Every structure is written in C-alpha cells, then in structure tokens.
Amino acid sequence: MDRAMRRTALVDSSSAIILFKACLFEYTAEYFRIVIPASVFEELTVGGRSGSEEFARYRADGSIQVRDTDPLLTVEGDMGGLDTGERDTILLYEAGSGEVILLDDGKGAAICRRRRIPHINALLVPRIFRRAGTINVEECERQMATIMIHGRYSDWVVDYARSCPDDDLADFA
C-alpha cells in the first residue's frame, strides 16, 4: 500500500500483542500508519516479555510512532474504568492524533461506540486486508482463526467479525 495513503490507526497494547502473537503486527504496520501512546509503548516493552525487543525495534525503524498524551486533558466520567493504555489511546484520538482506533477491550469499545469513534478489534484486521484485496478469503479465514487463538472474543464479536458487511469497514480501508 502507498505509504502516503495509509490511515493512521491508534493501537492499544492488547491489540498489538494479539497481532504480534498471530504474526500479523508487521503486516498491519505496513497497512496502517501505527501510533501508540507512550503508556502503551511502556507496556509493550517491559523487559523480558515476549515481543518487547521487537516493539522497541518497531519504534526505532519507524514502523510505529509513540506519542505522549496531553497531561492537561481531562478524563471524562465514562473513561474511569479503563486501563491507562486504553484511556490514552482514546485521548490521542480525541486530540486528533489518529483516524481510527484498534483495541480489544470491551469497555474501551463501548466508549468508542458512545463517542462515535471509528474502531475495530484485531479480529477485524484480516477482514480489512481482504476488503483491500491484499489477501483472499481463505487467507482471511486462516488469519482470523490464528487471532482467535491469541485473543478472547465473545460469540457475538466473532459472529460480527465473520459476517459484517464490507461497507462497515469502509472507515478502515
């Protein structure tokens, strides 16, 4: 994909980890311009954890950008139950640092829906690739199955990921 045409996706640690374990993070970083909050980068690069060295390398080679949240931003009431990474990801979106959010947290997704923030979880990433024509149906199904091994998804989330209309994914292409 043309690097100038890529959408900027703000990514939370849970989605980054799932995509990394499914061997899809680098491909995702080629498709999207990835921005993560500093708090998420800290979570991803805790020494000794699987992937910590790779995420540090992704930052060094420009595959991901790390941004600080504005310490003066106020956290509105509905974000009180979120972890720091999810909260900061949403705050970066609201500050204009990205076009879409990629997160695998139910509370965070609910806030995105309420605030009309375009968001997906890692399970929908292969559907985005398929819609863009970069993979075929069989590869999409294989990638989704791999993601389901590493992430925890309720039945309704899996059903939606498998059956959502391609038009629902237009914001992410």
Count of alpha/pi helices? 9
CATH topology (level 3) name = Rossmann fold
CATH superfamily label: 5'-nuclease
Q: Would you tell me the structural class of the helices and strands?
A: alpha/beta
Number of strands: 5
Overall, the morphology is globular
| Mean pLDDT value | 92
Q: Write out the strand line-up for the largest beta sheet, numbering strands in chain order.
A: 3-2-1-4-5
Looking at the overall shape, the CATH architecture is 3-Layer(aba) Sandwich
Uncertain parts: none
CATH C-level class is: Alpha Beta
Helix content: 40-55%
> Taking Cα atoms only, what radius of gyration do you get, to the nearest Å?
15 Å
Provide the β-strand percentage band.
5-15%
Alpha-carbon distance between the two ends: 11 Å
Query: Could you give a short account of the major beta sheet?
Result: 5 strands, parallel
Helix and strand sequence? EHHEHHEHEHEHHH
